[in-house]
Specification:
The complex is a heterodimer of chains A (about 325) and B (about 375). By secondary structure, chain A is an all-alpha fold. Chain A has a domain at about 10-225. Chain A is about 70% helix and about 0% strand. Chain A contains 13 helices and no strands. Chain A has helices spanning about 1-35, 45-65, 65-90, 95-115, 140-145, 150-165, 170-180, 180-185, 190-215, 230-240, 245-265, 270-275, 280-295. The longest helix of chain A has about 35 residues, at about 1-35. Chain B has about 375 residues and is an all-alpha fold. Chain B has a domain at about 95-315. Chain B is globular. Classes of the chains: A mainly alpha (about 325), B mainly alpha (about 375).
Chain lengths: ~325, ~375
């Protein structure tokens, strides 16, 4: 009996670690999913995320409040996304190239913002503690023992799912992403919808970055996102643009990361470097499988994804 | 583009009533050439201006910054050679973006091909030990080229035959290449003598590629310039390049014409990957002497910037790579003298990139640059 509880606790510990590793991916991925559902491909997730991490840490250190730090991170991501929106939605500039530029700019700006904070440490964001419930053996910490970011990420997934599939605004957003010409002809505000979606994606990416610097590590280091923004992009494709699958995929990718770290730490025979390639391999496989599915009928990707909309020309 | 009908020398029917007068044709041609130089130059100037405002906001002097860029990147023979040395890998990395761009593809996975090419070259050097360098060095380059071409060519194949988005696929492949290379460098190929910094065994002094005659810059620069010239000839002066441009402009039309679009996509992406891998080869064979983590220095990403600034024109890549090489060469000096973090150069690069993208939307919008378009409008009104 007691042995069962011990092994349960180990399982719980692993699951908790996986969930913490998955949270930044969920946050950034769900934001990018909304952006891509509106027909815009923003490759600048990494840049918005790393700027969110720097700004979030800076604000939290200055104000002493983790909550304000999270807001600051989300705000920084939103501002950078606004720049992207002006360029791609407003001026109809190339989305792929603008996203790359955004990543370079975000990495640069984060280095400047965070320059004075390298080496500082903060207490991690407080974890929920419900007396009785959190101490439940086996499942207590998994269900009731996380910080606010984790719960926010899970709420966001459910919220975005509900928004996309159960509200009129969500229907409009998906319609804009599938055919901007038709929705424009219907009198819907294509560019406004896309701009708002881009802002939402930026705020989510910024929040994901703030989670890294305020709860996950918790300190600021240059380029600390370490490619998580790109994984989030891959995740959206892997999830075939479905919110709930983003969460599932993030747990899978987060699990691969955790496995890699443990394999390295424990000196197991597993090749850690190759394990880190797993999420990318899985995504390429998913892309190929998706392309096979397309032969049988209807692509899963938003039809207007990445296509420029310029009504006046 | 409608502009092509006004190019001088095109056999337009004499009786064509819509034919613009010859003077206008020449003016239009001149104006287009001026536009294609003036807009990027204006954009770069605007980028520097925004960056200057940014520096002022930080309480730093933009003039001091420019002075340091000049001294660190261009002002002395030493600085110039340093810039050229940094420009060499950028030439190859930019070609990896510019060649597929002819087909309308955006390939951003050059970094992976660079690293993989470097590892392949270092690995190939081991069984070749003892051979004449005249034979071994080209074989090393060949190993690198094969690895890079296969890697990015696979992205092209996924695009051509499975419809997989090449931008995302190339990025994923790049990360897989980095993981694979790290695995090889830290595992199978690791030199047991490299304790703190895992590296492959040295390729040996005999196999090192030397400097260009009279310069302190390695041969990568010379080959890189040749590669750009060859890429220009391929894309602008051959039927294959023409076919690629057609497919990039209108895929459906190209397919109806019977052009082998799939094979074009695979060949151009593979060619791009081969170029990127050459950057890795020269980093190993001319700079480091073995393959290690320094291969992953971000040349692939700066190469994307170079290609876009050059509007994917292989000839324009030459000056742009030199400019960015100079800016990156001066970053250490800027960091020390102005107490700015090294990320400052990234801010400048990001701003330049964004401004150039905005400037892309300006072509044909300025009256002095497009007399033919404005003349047509006048005719349409009257």
């Amino acid at each position: 009996m007691s042995l069962d509880i011990v092994s349960l606790d180990i399982v719980q510990m692993v699951l908790v670690t996986v969930l913490t590793a998955a949270t930044p991916l969920i946050l950034a991925g769900i934001g990018e999913l909304v952006v891509e559902r509106s027909g815009v491909l923003n490759l600048g997730v990494e840049g918005m995320m790393v700027l969110g991490a720097a700004a979030g840490f800076a604000v939290a250190t200055q104000t002493g409040s983790t909550g304000l730090g999270a807001l600051g991170g989300a705000g920084a991501g939103l501002l950078l996304a606004a720049l992207f929106g002006v360029l791609t939605v407003g001026l109809a500039a190339n989305q792929v190239a603008s996203g790359l530029a955004l990543t370079i700019l975000g990495l640069g700006l984060s280095g400047l913002v965070g320059a004075g904070y390298v080496g500082m440490k903060r207490d991690p964001a407080p974890h929920l503690h419900l007396p009785g419930l959190t101490d439940l053996p086996g499942i207590g910490r998994l269900l009731f023992g996380h910080d606010a970011f984790v719960y926010a990420a899970l709420l966001l997934v459910v919220g975005v799912w509900w928004f996309l599939w159960r509200t009129r605004a969500g229907l409009i957003l998906r319609a804009v992403g599938d055919d901007h010409t038709a929705t424009h002809a219907l009198g819907l505000k294509v560019r406004k919808v896309r701009f708002l979606a881009v802002l939402f994606g930026g705020a989510c990416a910024g929040l994901a970055g703030a989670y890294l610097s305020l709860a996950y590590t918790p300190f600021w280091a240059p380029a600390m996102t370490a490619g998580r923004g790109w994984i989030a992009l891959a995740l959206v494709v892997f999830a075939s643009w479905q919110p709930l699958r983003v969460a599932a995929g993030a747990l899978l990718f987060g699990g691969a990361t955790v496995l890699q770290l443990h394999a390295q730490a424990a000196g197991l025979g597993l090749p850690g470097q190759l394990l880190s390639a797993l999420p990318y391999l899985a995504t390429i496989l998913a892309l190929v499988l998706l392309s096979l599915g397309r032969r049988r009928g209807g692509s899963l990707a938003p039809a207007a994804l990445g296509r420029v909309f310029a009504p006046s020309r | 583009m409608a502009a092509d009908t006004t190019a001088p020398g095109l056999p337009l029917a004499e009786s064509d009533p819509d034919r613009p007068p010859a003077s206008l044709q020449i003016r239009a041609w001149l104006a287009r050439r001026t536009e294609s130089v003036a807009i990027p130059l204006g954009a770069v100037a605007a980028g520097f201006l925004i960056f200057s405002l940014f520096l002022v906001a930080l309480g730093k002097s933009p003039l001091a910054f420019l002075d340091l860029v000049w001294r660190g990147g261009f002002g002395s023979p030493f600085a110039l050679q340093n810039s050229l040395q940094r420009a060499a890998p950028l030439l190859f990395a930019a070609l990896c973006v510019a060649l597929p761009a002819r087909l309308g593809l955006v390939v951003i996975g050059g970094e992976g091909a660079i690293v993989l090419g470097g590892v392949a070259a270092a690995a190939a050097a081991q069984p070749l030990q003892g051979l004449s360098p005249l034979l071994a060095v080209p074989l090393m380059a060949l190993a690198a080229v094969a690895a890079g071409a296969a890697w990015i060519g696979a992205v092209g194949a996924l695009r051509a035959y499975r419809g997989v988005n090449e931008t995302i696929a190339s990025l994923l492949m790049s990360y897989i290449a980095l993981a694979l290379s790290n695995h090889l460098i830290e595992g199978w190929l690791r030199d047991p003598a490299s304790l703190n910094k895992p590296s492959t065994a040295p390729i040996g002094e005999a196999f090192m590629v030397g400097a260009l005659p009279g310069l302190d810059v390695h041969w990568g620069l010379g080959i890189g310039v040749l590669a750009c010239l060859a890429a220009y000839a391929l894309t602008e002066r051959t039927t294959i390049g023409f076919a690629a441009r057609i497919a990039g402009g209108n895929l459906r039309a190209a397919q109806i014409q019977g052009l082998p679009v799939g094979r074009l996509v695979v060949s151009f992406t593979a060619l791009g990957g081969a170029c990127a891998a050459l950057a890795g080869f020269f980093e190993v064979a001319a700079v480091h002497g073995n393959a290690n983590a320094s291969l992953n220095a971000g040349f692939g990403y700066t190469g994307i910037l170079v290609a876009f600034l050059a509007r994917h024109n292989p000839l324009a890549i030459l000056p742009v790579a030199f400019l960015l090489g100079g800016i990156e060469a001066s970053s250490g000096l800027i960091q020390r003298r102005m107490q700015l973090p090294d990320a400052t150069v990234l801010v400048l690069e990001g701003l330049l990139f964004l401004v150039v993208l905005v400037s892309e939307t300006l072509y044909g919008r300025f009256k002095p640059f497009s007399p033919h378009l404005w003349a047509e409008k006048r005719r349409a009104v009257s």
